[in-house]
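Pasting as-is:
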Amino acid sequence: MGSMTSVFDVIVHRMLRVAYTLNVRYKRILPGAKVTYVFIHGLGDTADLWAGTIGELPHNVNYIAMDLVGFGDSPKPAWARYDAKMQARSVLQTCLASGIFGPVTVVGHSLGALVAVEFARRYPLAVRRLILCSPPIYDTQPGRAARQLQQNALHRIYGELAKNPKLIMNAYAFGKKLRLINQSFQVTPETLPAFLASLQTSIMNQDTIQHIERIHVPIVIIDGQFDVLTINSILKQIAKRHKNMRLITIPAAHVIMGRYQKQLVSLLREQLQ
């Protein structure tokens, strides 16, 4: 049965390019809602990241939060590249399968923010606005040296992590034990291949900065002052160049908890006014 399932998976999803339907952890689809939020988690995480945020939403909104391909309880194909394009296609497929068709507000954290940008680029009629939390947007175009030091340092760190998979799992386990990261993180031997592939294809070799400048819906970016995985100068320059973008810098780190979550909930409620 396992081999037949594997063959079916390769034929349908790899050869025929049929997007995956993802595991949905939280969903509310009611008629007459003022807005529908689509929540996309980050690298190594699950949709449980959004539990606290969803619990603070008013009753007149719809929402859906799903595990990305390779994470949580969603499919984990061994052949996949786990790039933002694949994730965005699967997010759309899951929305459609759940009965979500109209323009939505996409809320993405970290890797999920990059997927949100790709989603808006590919499906502009499906998106009302973007809220990008801690987006690791890097400038991969040559000749721009102003932020190269931090960016190069991050790429060296990512490269070392890719060489030492056990270090990744140990670091995440240690962080959860000390409550330095969300308890929703799940970096296990089962999800590690997707983690490493996503790190390579979606973060280290991204083209998000080119895509985000072609998106015309309202975009709000939340960045933490103490976030070592984002480059605030790049985010400032992006927001400065485009009237549809707004950057909010808060005294927080990368993970959505405490003050960060309060800021996000406030922003989501602001969208209803």
